[in-house]
Amino acid sequence: MRPAAEALLRAAAAGDDPSALREAVRLLLAADPGLAAALRRTLVTLVPQERVDTLSARVPALAAPPPTATPQPVPPVAEAPVTEAIAPPPPAPEPEPQEGFFKWKAWEGEVKVGGSASTGDVNEQALSLVFEMSQVIADTWDHSVSVNTDYSRNNGVTNQQRLASAYELFYRGWDNYFLSSLTRVDYDRFGSFLWRITEAPSVGWTIYNREKLGWSLQGGPGIRFTNLAETDAAGSEFNETNTEFVFRLGSNFDWALNGRVTLSNDSSLFTGPTTTTAENEIALTSDLTDRLSAAVSFNVRWDSQVPEDTSRIDTLSRFSLGYKF
């Protein structure tokens, strides 16, 4: 503190007027607020401590600041090593349910109905019904069912009653080859036989498999049971059942002429030691809508062995309307 300021304090403290010392302290603090600590040290040497405390109460700027707590050293905190954030692995995909061997899908097929009636010199009615359907049962397995029936009457007398049904199972484990097993039942009341059952496993070869053209061949051994209506020497009719091993040859051809018209031709040959049967059916089908169709077909069948007074060749023409499902 400067000597002039100290001399002023000494003169004010030596006087009898207590207010003179107070005014001197205020004057010095007004001139330099930073003298508070030095003034307190000097006043303690000039006047009693009680008077210093009184002055501090009356002149707040002279009062000593409250003691501050000594800051305690803060122990250093170890910093965690900085690592790159690692994204959690994606959840493992749920395993797909294992499908069994069979994968049954809905049946697909078609029903065709045809008929005719005439009056006058010839009174004739005819009805034909065709039922076909197929189904996929596994990746390489499928099967099909077909039933064809024809019935007609002429002048009140039945002159045609014919039924042909077939079931065929396919295994398509290769690109161009397949295996099949055919079971066929035929009934022809006025034909070359009464009924016939044929079982024939085969090996097939797909020659063409294009969008508009398909053709396959198949062949293999089989067995056939044929029931014939025979006549003895006395003129009495009796039934005789023949069993023979046969060899089967088959051909299936389909050609899409355009987006709605398809030409198909199916042929079969069953030949054995005593009888041979050849059959061919050609059909032209036109789609009227997505589900409705119209078809005209011609079927011819030839048998090498037939009863007396029976033709070896039978033909059948159909015109029908079909519904797909």
Describe the overall structure.
With 325 residues, this protein is mainly beta. It has helices spanning 3-14, 18-31, 36-46, 49-58; strands at residues 108-118, 124-136, 141-154, 157-171, 177-188, 195-209, 213-231, 237-256, 261-271, 276-287, 292-303, 313-324. Strands 1-2-3-4-5-6-7-8-9-10-11-12 form a 12-stranded antiparallel barrel. A hairpin with a 5-residue loop joins strand 7 (213-231) and strand 8. Helix 1 runs antiparallel to helix 2 (18-31).
The overall average pLDDT, rounded, is 82
Structural class: mainly beta
Shape: rod-shaped
Largest sheet: 12 strands, antiparallel, barrel
What order do the helices and strands follow? HHHHEEEEEEEEEEEE
Features:
twelve-stranded antiparallel β-barrel
Question: Nutshell version of this structure?
Answer:
With 325 residues, the protein is mainly beta. The chain has helices at 3-14, 18-31, 36-46, 49-58, and strands spanning 108-118, 124-136, 141-154, 157-171, 177-188, 195-209, 213-231, 237-256, 261-271, 276-287, 292-303, 313-324.
